[in-house]
């Protein structure tokens, strides 16, 4: 069954009370982790960490409307408006622990392979993206990432500009560049994701063609031939007016992070401006694609 994780940093003294708040907001389970053993929020270069020593992790059904959860939690005196948090789709396994033994090169579409650096490349003549584990979401193991990679592999990206909205590890932007895109732009709300994308781009020799932005820093006139957004259904609906402006006329749009049961509602937010393709499903998740009118 698919799940969503919400991670919040706090102190040990407040963790239990915050855990109760997560349960009241709809979490089916809550766990606590020592921040020093399993860092979730890493300080930026030169930054001193001033927040707590415990990460509280709530597990929610993937159909949960996370914006509603966040709005409810913002009413908690312990948190307040704009509290620091991280929302992500839960990978099928804890690949950060099992990666070395269980992760092998994976093929997506006809040309594209995602390969860990310690494995031999199956096909030196293929398009190979080298990706090692990190804290940012996006390894290719989750069905939503797989659906996006397969879609990118099927496009003619030569000379095109691609925007990866919610770039995470940078896997989609990097794959697009190695598939022939002239330029890629990654956008993410998490500084840690920006750093992970930058590191992975350098590892793959494409960093000079990848621009990375936090939303507050991105140019106002961004546009691209291809836009891919692998986030969650709620944000895809809420941000539809913004995301819809990013593809050029005749440009391609790919959306994922959506359960099959959520596809109709998400598609409805884009149908006025895009000629949408039939929805593609994989393991309860789906991908919506289309061309801008």
Characterise the protein shown here:
The chain is an alpha/beta fold. It folds into 2 domains: 3-89, Alpha-Beta Plaits (2-Layer Sandwich), CATH 3.30.70; 95-292, Vaccinia Virus protein VP39 (Rossmann fold), CATH 3.40.50. Helices cover 26% and strands 29% of the residues. It has helices at 12-24, 66-73, 95-102, 143-153, 171-178, 191-203, 233-238, 240-243, 263-268; strands at residues 3-10, 29-34, 54-61, 86-89, 106-108, 112-115, 127-130, 161-165, 183-187, 210-213, 224-230, 247-259, 274-276, 280-282, 285-292. Strands 8, 9, 10, 11, 12, 13, 14 and 15 form an 8-stranded mixed beta sheet that branches. α4 runs parallel beside α5. The chain is globular.
Instruction: Assign a percent range to the helix content.
Output: 25-40%
What's the level 1 CATH class of the largest domain? Alpha Beta
Measure the end-to-end span. Answer: 36 Å
Structural class: alpha/beta
How much is the radius of gyration in Å? 19 Å
- What is the overall shape? globular
Q: Regions with pLDDT < 50 over 5+ consecutive residues?
A: 37-51, 93-100
Number of domains: 2
Number of strands: 15
Compute the number of helices: 9
User: Quaternary state, please?
Assistant: single chain
The CATH superfamily label of the largest domain reads Vaccinia Virus protein VP39
Helices and strands, in order, run as EHEEHEHEEEHEHEHEEHHEHEEE
Main β sheet profile: 8 strands, mixed
Which fold name is given in CATH as the topology of the largest domain?
Rossmann fold
What is the strand content?
25-35%
CATH architecture level-2 label of the largest domain: 3-Layer(aba) Sandwich
Mean pLDDT: 86
